[in-house]
C-alpha cells in the first residue's frame, strides 16, 4: 500500500481559519441584532438610531446623523405648514357665520397647542438621542458582551421570541398608522401627504418610545436568563442527582461586567447591588 503525501497550503488554511473566525455572533451578526433589524431600520429613518458597527462594537455614527438632521428639518417644516393651514382656515371661518364655525374657531387654539407640544416632545427626544449616543452604545455593547460570555459558558440565549415579537410589532404598527391615516383623510377630507405630515411627529414620538421600551425589555430578558442559570445550578436536593455548578465568582463577574460597563446611572448601581445579593444567596461556593 502506497501512501501519498498531500500538499499543505499554509495560505489556504489561513484563509479558512479567518473565515471561521469572522463568523462570530457579534455586531451585526449577533442573534439580538438579527432578530430586531427591521425595527432598527425604521427607528433609524426617524432619526433615533445614529449608530453603526465598527469591529463588532456599536459606536456613534456621524454618517447616520443625516437622518436626525432631516427629521429635525422635516418636523419644523410640518409645524410651519400646519400652523399656516390652521391660520387660513380660521380666516375663512371668521368670514362665514354660524354656530358650528364658532365652535371650530374656539377649538383651533387647543389644536395648535397640541401640535406645538407634540413637536416640542419629538424635538426633545431627538436632541436627547444625539447627546446620549455614547451611553446608548455602552449599554448595547454590555448586552452583547453578556450574550457572548454566557454563550462561552454553554448557556446561549435564543432570540426566536424576540424576532417574532419584533416582526409582529413592526407589522401591527404599520397597519395601525395606515388605518389612522386613511380614517383622517376620509374624516377631514385631507390629502395623503398633508395627513401623513400631520401624523409624522406622532409617529416619531412612538418610535422613541419603542426604542426605550425595547432596551428595557432586552435588559429584563437577560436578568431572567441569568435567573434561570442560577436556578438550574442550585445544589441538588438529592445526592443521586448531578448538576453542574457555576461558581459564585463566575456569576458575579458575568453580571458585574454587564452592568458596570453599560449602566453608570443610579438605576444601574441599584440593579448591580441587588443582583450581587441574589448571586451570593443562590450560587454555591
Which features would summarize this protein structure in a list?
single chain; two-stranded antiparallel ribbon; 2 strands; elongated
Query: Order of strands across the biggest sheet?
Result: 1-2
The percent range for strand residues is under 5%
Q: What value does the average pLDDT take?
A: 75
Instruction: Please count the beta strands (DSSP E, at least 2 residues each).
Output: 2
- Counting DSSP H or I runs of 4 or more residues, the number of helices is 9
H/E element order: HHEEHHHHHHH
**Shape annotation:** elongated
- Note the gap between the termini: 58 Å
The largest sheet, given as strand count, sense and whether it forms a barrel, is: 2 strands, antiparallel
Structural class: mainly alpha
What gyration radius follows from the Cα positions, in whole Å? 27 Å
Low-confidence stretches: 98-105, 262-270, 276-285
The level of helicity is over 70%
Number of structural units classed as domains: 1
Question: Overview of this structure, please?
Answer:
With 285 residues, the chain is an all-alpha fold. It has one domain. Helices cover 75% and strands 3% of the residues. The protein contains 9 helices and 2 strands, in the order ααββααααααα. Strands 1-2 form a two-stranded antiparallel ribbon. A hairpin with a 2-residue loop joins strand 1 and strand 2. Helix 8 packs antiparallel against helix 9. The longest helix has 41 residues. The chain is elongated, with a radius of gyration of 27 Å. The chain starts with 9 loop residues before the first helix and ends with a helix. The C terminus is likely disordered. This is Gustatory receptor. It is found in: Cell membrane.
Amino acid at each position: 500500500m502506497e501512501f501519498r503525501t498531500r500538499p499543505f497550503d499554509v495560505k489556504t488554511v489561513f484563509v479558512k481559519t479567518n473565515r471561521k473566525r469572522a463568523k462570530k455572533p457579534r455586531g451585526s451578526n449577533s442573534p439580538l441584532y438579527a432578530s430586531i433589524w427591521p425595527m432598527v431600520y425604521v427607528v433609524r429613518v426617524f432619526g433615533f438610531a445614529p449608530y453603526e458597527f465598527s469591529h463588532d462594537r456599536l459606536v456613534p455614527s456621524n454618517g447616520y446623523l443625516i437622518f436626525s438632521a432631516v427629521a429635525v428639518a422635516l418636523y419644523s417644516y410640518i409645524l410651519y405648514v400646519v400652523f399656516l393651514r390652521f391660520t387660513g382656515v380660521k380666516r375663512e371661518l371668521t368670514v362665514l357665520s354660524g354656530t358650528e364655525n364658532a365652535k371650530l374657531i374656539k377649538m383651533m387654539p387647543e389644536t395648535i397647542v397640541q401640535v406645538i407640544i407634540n413637536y416640542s416632545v419629538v424635538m426633545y427626544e431627538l436632541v436627547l438621542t444625539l447627546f446620549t449616543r455614547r451611553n446608548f452604545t455602552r449599554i448595547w455593547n454590555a448586552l452583547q458582551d453578556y450574550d457572548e460570555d454566557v454563550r462561552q459558558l454553554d448557556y446561549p440565549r435564543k432570540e426566536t421570541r424576540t424576532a417574532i415579537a419584533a416582526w409582529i410589532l413592526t407589522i401591527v404598527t404599520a397597519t395601525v398608522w395606515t388605518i389612522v391615516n386613511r380614517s383622517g383623510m376620509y374624516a377631514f377630507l385631507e390629502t395623503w401627504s398633508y395627513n401623513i405630515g400631520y401624523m409624522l411627529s406622532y409617529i416619531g414620538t412612538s418610535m422613541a418610545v419603542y426604542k426605550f421600551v425595547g432596551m428595557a425589555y432586552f435588559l429584563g430578558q437577560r436578568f431572567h436568563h441569568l435567573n434561570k442559570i442560577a436556578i438550574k445550578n442550585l445544589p441538588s436536593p438529592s445526592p443521586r442527582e448531578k448538576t453542574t455548578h457555576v461558581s459564585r465568582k463566575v456569576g458575579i463577574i458575568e453580571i458585574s461586567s454587564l452592568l458596570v460597563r453599560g449602566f453608570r446611572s443610579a438605576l444601574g448601581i441599584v440593579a448591580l447591588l441587588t443582583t450581587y445579593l441574589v448571586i451570593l444567596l443562590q450560587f454555591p461556593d
